[in-house]
Amino acid sequence: MSGAVIILNARLNRKPSKKCKMNNFTEKVKSLIANLSDDRLLLFCNLNCEEVLPGYQIFTEVENWGNYEFFKSLNQDVYRLVADKQVRNYRQWSKQLEDNFPDLDDFDSISASYAFDACVVFNQTISFLLDGDRGHANINSTGVLDTVDMFIQLKENVQGTSYNNLPALEKLIESDEYMQREYKRQIVLLEELQKIEISEAGIKSLRKMNNDFGPLIDYNRLR
Fold this sequence. Notes:
The chain has helices at residues 3-14, 21-34, 38-63, 68-84, 90-99, 111-131, 135-155, 166-175, 177-193, 200-212.
């Protein structure tokens, strides 16, 4: 097993469970995902990929490592795939992604963690294409939340927390404007995906709607 995959597995299993609004959001997302066709679900995952893409771009600029153009092209290729239904080489995509998956032990800058989360989100999209397991869409969704969570802690200068004040930290993150906006973005897109026509025009409309929410986080703070 590669180092990147080992780190990914550890990252997915380390997070404490959220309560209250996070649980409500998660259940809402699961419910909406269950009602989507595969092509609409793939489109949702790829819209999320587009949101985290700037994190990988900044990482590449800061660390001079990784192929940002691969991720940018992959994002566009998946949009084309949804529109034209032509099968691509998903396993080659998976191999290229693994080659560009940062090992967090190899980098010092905070941008590496954001690139890591971007790779998680893209990885789950490719995994959905490979095996059709809808659970990948849920991990794709929470991967975006991880980026927002991490940014809020950076913005609020959170240095660390003990078990006793963890609820206060979770409350801070839950109530932050960035997290509230991200909850809204995902729900709005999932609801719109229930009714939109899957076509080039429909995809363009969804991407505009996604873009209208503004940047996922203030990526300039990662430089």
